[in-house]
Amino acid sequence: MIIGFIGTGNMGGALARAVRAARPNDVLLLSDSSPEKAAVLAQEIGADVVDNRTVAINSDFIFLGVKPQMLQDMLSSIVGLLRSRSDSFTIISMAAGVPISRLKVLCGRPCPIIRIMPNTPVSVGEGAVLYAVSEGTSPEAVYKFGEIMAKAGKLMNIDEKLIDAASAISGCGPAFADLFIEALADGGVACGLPRSTATALASQMLLGSAKLQLETGKHPGELKDAVCSPAGSTIEGVKALEDGAFRSSVMNAVISAYKRTKELG
Predict the structure, then answer these.
(1) Residue 165 belongs to a domain
(2) What is the pTM of this model?
(3) How many whole angstroms separate alpha carbon 119 and alpha carbon 14?
């Protein structure tokens, strides 16, 4: 297959790496407003740097990795090329907040559309890729999509009306988790740990805790209680977090991210 990317920023680049891992023999085409940046990625993963028109004309799957506010202008520049194609192709959009109904209008012709919301851990094969499929998209196209995303992490088919709320957790969440890791490491440094040791401990702890919850299926509150011995160190730390409105702050972060996503769309 020929797989094209228009936009190779942090998210587009992460997905391109995942696609190359899953499809080592396919042709990958990269287009970006910064050809120099695309060239660095192309050399890393074995891809070709082209322009938007080349991606639009040749690709079986076209990944749209531009910002939502830039999407209309970008598609208007290639819509004529998309209309002229007589073969089958699939649009895969990662533009936050832009629904499939709007993408259909912007593409200027009927074509299969898969709307995705990935997150940056796809670059190491541990991502979450939310996706919703337009009406008329064939099972074969969805199957091939699954093939090219096989090394990205967990694929989750979700009702499109819920995708913005879900992406406020999975898409924005890595930034929240990174803040937590940094804060934990800062606390460790304040207690005398070297920065590298504190960061490694915080990251491994978060990774292990997430895996424990996923594999056991236990409620996070139950797992938290298992660590909190009466009058112990952990419950004192939990109290400090509650004094700082930790849970309320995290909830507000998700809600704020969701509201902004709706505004972008």
Answers:
(1) no
(2) 0.87
(3) 8
In the chain, the number of structural domains is: 2
35-61: b or e for each residue (b if 16 or more CB lie within 10 Å)? eeebbebbeebebebbebebbbbbbbb
Residue 44 CA to residue 245 CA, distance in Å, equals 43
Rounded Cα distance, 109 and 190, in Å? 59
Going residue by residue through the chain (265 aa), what tens digit of pLDDT does each one get? 999 999 998 899 999 999 999 999 999 999 999 999 999 999 999 999 999 999 999 999 999 999 888 999 999 999 999 999 999 999 999 998 899 999 999 998 889 999 999 999 998 899 999 999 999 899 999 999 999 999 999 999 999 999 999 999 999 999 999 999 999 999 999 999 999 999 999 999 999 999 999 999 999 999 999 999 999 999 999 999 999 999 999 999 999 999 998 888 7
| 53 and 137 co-located in one domain | yes
The continuous run of DSSP H or E covering 5 comes out as strand 2-6
Same domain, 239 and 112: no
